[in-house]
Write a structure and sequence with these properties.
- The structure holds two protein chains of two kinds.
- Chain A is of the alpha+beta class.
- Chain A folds into three domains: 45 residues, Uridine Diphospho-n-acetylenolpyruvylglucosamine Reductase, domain 2 (2-Layer Sandwich); 115 residues, Uridine Diphospho-n-acetylenolpyruvylglucosamine Reductase, domain 3; 101 residues, Enolase-like, domain 1 (2-Layer Sandwich).
- In chain A, 32% of the residues lie in helices and 27% in strands.
- Chain A has twelve helices and 14 strands.
- In chain A, the strands form four sheets. Chain A has a five-stranded antiparallel sheet.
- In chain A, helix 10 runs antiparallel to helix 11 and helix 11 runs antiparallel to helix 12.
- Chain A starts with 6 loop residues before the first strand and ends in a 6-residue tail after the last helix.
- Chain B folds into two domains: 78 residues, Ubiquitin-like (UB roll) (Roll); 86 residues, DNA polymerase, domain 1 (Orthogonal Bundle), CATH 1.10.150.
- Helices cover 37% and strands 15% of the residues of chain B.
- Chain B is built from six helices and five strands.
- Classes of the chains: A alpha+beta, B alpha+beta.
- At the A-B interface, helix 2 and helix 6 of A face strand 4 and helix 3 of B.
- Bound molecules: flavin-adenine dinucleotide and FE2/S2 (inorganic) cluster (FES) (2 copies).
């Protein structure tokens, strides 16, 4: 397919990128694994692509002494999957990255692009919401931190202004908690849940549960309170997660109806919590 | 985009070991550039939506779908297409030879992409399991072979197996996976 005419610029620094983003109709191009599809469909008008895919400043993964992890927005899924540091600090996340789409998309698609694009099928939006990550943004007017819970604003939209870049994301220390990540795929992901669980003496000390495949990934506070202190048995977890789908508004499309997706929410939530209890996501 | 001349860029990169300089329009996809401007018909266009992998090439050491990148992004990069596999005289490399030997292709439309993904796998992991081979070609759709012979062909290069011994080992591996 032929793209509409568009200008292209590859900055060498974040500052150059931010300056270019001041231009009307400018848009960051990261891995391009969603944006190029959109440009092919001519579903949006872009005048200037600002190629941030080779900006070294966006491409590191660092683990702090307290165990928190900061991942550059330009880090690819493959780089996440291959990083020993990430594997050590956030094993479940490196497993998710290692199984995201396919080798070719993993070699190009970026953590930041995946979050900014916020397609309901995308893997990482519910993840950052579940762990209470902090999103670091930079624009011409300076830098700011956005809690993951406030970053997603609807289908394909986020809290950034047009001239801001997501530069990195900080995940708090796991401190021994385990990650569960479960989805049901029908064509593409139809329902997805992420659970972060702390255990104490064989029962659940605390849990956070987030659902994806939604315009805005959501936490499930009622489920989280029901899980706190609950037994780790399948029956207890099923009971605590039974209301996981209450009040969510998923899409109906060719893959699955909204009712089906709502009905599957407790199923994926239960599976994710049980997976976390059993030691965490290993693919 | 306002009316006016289409934006163009001068790019320089390494393609299958040779240095190439060209002027490209910034809206041109890498796959069109390779096929139509440079005459390399190895990378195919199967879907043009990033799903089928027929356009797979190696970009700076990693496989990508060339319909999901722009030609201008080749600037400064090292790109290898399936044309890089065979020797100067046209001798097939061992992976290509193994695909022939094990009937790893029928119509051949997916093959240049599958070969590039397989080579990427073996460069990284010379000793892959059948499951790792299947995962490595997850982004390459084949409508003909049913994948079984593709997995065999790749496995044969990695493990030097042939014939019955190979098939039996694959079956055993698969049975263990199903049991697990
Ligand atoms: C066949 C196929 C199947 C897929 N299936 C899945 C799937 O199952 N799960 C999944 O998670 N993903 C899937 N994807 C999407 C893929 O993960 C994309 O890579 C991802 O959605 C976008 O990341 P990107 O780096 O490619 O960003 P791009 O496509 O380059 O950009 C996406 C959007 O984000 C903006 N953006 C990017 N980076 C930044 C930044 N740092 N700051 C501000 N804005 C930014 C861009 O301007 C653009 O609007 C699939 C893609 C393909 C081709
Ligand atoms: S043509 Fe590129 S993935 Fe199908
Ligand atoms: S051999 Fe025909 S598509 Fe694979």
């Amino acid at each position: 397919m032929l793209l509409a005419p568009v200008e292209y610029y590859r900055p060498d620094t974040i500052d150059e990128a931010l300056e270019a983003l001041q231009t009307d109709g400018a848009r960051p191009l990261a891995g391009g694994q969603s944006l190029i599809s959109i440009l092919k469909l001519r579903a949006t008008t872009v005048d200037l692509l600002v190629d941030i895919s080779r900006l070294d400043d966006l491409r590191s993964i660092s683990v702090a002494d307290d165990g928190s992890v900061t991942i550059g927005a330009g880090v690819t899924y493959d780089e996440m999957a291959m990083s020993p540091d990430l594997h050590h600090a956030y094993p479940g996340l490196s497993t998710i990255a290692a199984h995201t789409v396919d080798a070719q998309v993993r070699n190009r698609g970026t953590f930041g692009g995946n979050l900014c694009h916020n397609d309901p099928i995308n893997n990482f939006p519910p993840f950052v919401v579940a762990v209470d990550a902090v999103m670091h943004a930079t624009g011409a007017n300076g830098s700011r931190d956005i809690p993951a819970g406030e970053f997603f604003t609807g289908y394909f939209t986020n809290a950034l202004t047009d001239d801001e870049l997501l530069t990195s994301v900080t995940l708090p220390p796991l401190n021994g908690r385990s990650i569960g990540y479960q989805e049901i795929e029908i064509g593409e992901a139809a329902a997805r849940a992420v659970a972060i669980v702390a255990m104490s003496n064989g029962s659940i000390e605390s849990a956070s549960v987030a659902l994806g495949c939604l315009p805005i990934p959501v936490r499930r506070p009622a489920v989280e309170s029901a899980l706190a202190g609950a037994d780790s048995t399948p029956e207890a977890v099923a009971e605590a997660t039974a209301a996981a789908g209450d009040g969510i508004e998923p899409v109906s499309d060719a893959d699955a109806s909204a009712d089906y997706r709502r009905a599957m929410a407790p199923v994926v939530a239960k599976r994710a919590v049980l997976e976390a209890i059993q030691g965490g996501h290993h693919g | 985009m306002a009316d006016g001349p289409a934006p163009i860029h001068d790019i320089e990169f390494t393609l299958n070991g040779d240095s190439v300089s060209r002027t490209v329009s910034s809206r041109m996809l890498l796959v069109h550039f390779l096929r139509d401007e440079l005459g390399l018909r190895g990378p195919k266009i199967g879907c043009d939506t990033g799903h089928c992998g027929a356009c797979t090439v190696n970009y700076d050491g990693k496989v990508i779908k060339s319909c999901m990148a722009l030609a201008v992004q080749a600037d400064g990069a090292t790109i290898d297409t399936v044309e890089s596999l065979a020797g100067e005289s046209g001798d097939l490399d061992e992976l290509q030879e193994s695909f022939r030997e094990h009937h790893g292709l029928q119509c051949g439309y997916c093959t240049s992409g599958v070969l590039m993904s397989a080579k990427f796998l073996l460069d990284r992991n010379p000793n892959p399991s059948a499951e790792e081979i299947r995962e490595a070609i997850h982004g390459n759709l084949c409508r003909c072979t049913g994948y079984v012979n593709i997995v065999k062909a790749i496995s044969a290069v990695a493990h030097g197996d042939s014939g019955l011994a190979l098939i039996e080992r694959l079956n055993r591996e698969h049975a263990t996976e199903v049991d697990a």
